[in-house]
Amino acid sequence: xxxxxxxxxxxxxxxxxxxxxxxxxxxxxxxxxxxxxxxxxxxxxxxxxxxxxxxxxxxxxxxxxxxxxxxxxxxxxxxxxxxxxxxxxxxxxxxxxxxxxxxxxxxxxxxxxxxxxxxxxxxxxxxxxxxxxxxxxxxxxxxxxxxxxxxxxxxxxxxxxxxxxxxxxxxxxxxxxxxxxxxxxxxxxxxxxxxxxxxxxxxxxxxxxxxxxxxxxxxxxxxxxxx
Length: 227
Hints:
By secondary structure, the protein is of the alpha/beta class. The protein has a single domain (about 10-220), classed as Uracil-DNA Glycosylase, subunit E (3-Layer(aba) Sandwich), CATH 3.40.470.10. The chain contains seven helices and eight strands. A hairpin with a 2-residue loop joins strand 6 and strand 7 (about 195).
């Protein structure tokens, strides 16, 4: 006689439902669903499943963060191949870590934005990272490129974001990272109540790294010698 499955805790159940939502999303042609699809030319076998597991491990390690840093979307050198917002293969999927690489590239991808954010946050557990759009928008026909998401895609992303705050992080304070997330969060509601955005940080890309570090360090109470 087989043993009945162990009941999931509400937080872990919420993670599974969120991942399922991300995986099932039907997206425009120029938006890659990294949690469902594998590009045979770019992804290792089982890449999407590995990205789902990477995200699962990441969220499980952050059950009660104080802040949620909300960016734009996965970049092709970063979360596109890790499944974890504001990360890249070089820094997240190093040998001996619990996270798996998913690209077929001989050397791990490195992304400047991921480097800035990960080096600032280190092993902190009071910040969870997410994106307005959790999938990868790219130029049509150019999978290794980035593009700003259109209004339709942002709408899909905000549906996932509402679930993210409602089921996983109802007490977590939102922090917009970049102008596009700040604009998308204007008037955004979770269960009919406006989401409070306590800070708008400069995005690290396009010359914004120093300002992002300064603003984020001030918010988190990080002293210069701690960075």
